[in-house]
Amino acid sequence: MSDIQGQVVVTQQADVDFYFGVADKMLECGQRLVKLNLDVAKSAFSDWYEGIQDGLKKPGEGEASDLQSALAVPSAEKVTTYERQIAEIASTTQTQLAELFDAHYQQASRRAQWFIEKVAQFAPANSEAAVAFLKQIRALADTSHDSMHRAAKQTAVIVQSSVNALTKTTLALDESTNEVADEATKAARH
């Protein structure tokens, strides 16, 4: 009986460690997102300030349009970089959480195996079917865990490849847009 009480205490300690580990990773992710957003805002204000200063220094009739372009939306490259950084933070957090969940599951699986062995050891006669049922449930849980683990990895790969494809498309679009804008500017001057 004291073995079971000891396992209950160990289980409770492992669960507390697990929940605090998850909370720690989520707070770490939140901190990284806040820092990224503050860095992006600081960079945007700096770019706007420089653009406005440059626009005010240029004399002529295009001052209003220069100021307007200084406040324009950030380039596709900057947006893509921001999205990539968000995806990296999400991917890192997902990987860290998956590791925590996997370690917690492995501990729970070992405790379940120990429990099944104790039940089998002290079970009354003719309870082989009940023990076999418990073993099947554990095997099913292991199979489900493995399937979900593989699906999560596949999803992460798909998301990463989608982000990479989006990055390439956005950069190509940004380059094309810049070429068209340059040509329009040259045509307007002539």
Q: Describe it for me?
A:
The model has no long low-confidence stretch (mean pLDDT 82). The chain has helices at residues 2-57, 63-70, 76-122, 128-189. The protein is elongated and about 100 Å long. The protein is an all-alpha fold and 190 residues long. The chain has one domain (2-189).
What is this structure, in a nutshell?
It is built from 4 helices and no strands. With 190 residues, it is mostly helical.
How do the strands and helices of this protein lay out in sequence?
Layout: H1 2-57, H2 63-70, H3 76-122, H4 128-189
Please name the defining characteristics of this protein:
single chain; 190 residues; mainly alpha; 4 helices; elongated
Mean pLDDT: 82
The span between the termini is 93 Å
Major pleated sheet: none
- Measured by DSSP, the beta-strand proportion falls in under 5%
Give the ordered list of helices and strands: HHHH
Low-confidence segments, given as residue ranges, are none
- Given helix and strand content, the structural type is mainly alpha
Annotation, overall tally of beta strands:
0
User: Percent of residues in helical segments?
Assistant: over 70%
Q: Name the shape in a single word.
A: elongated
Number of domains: 1
Helix count from the secondary structure assignment: 4
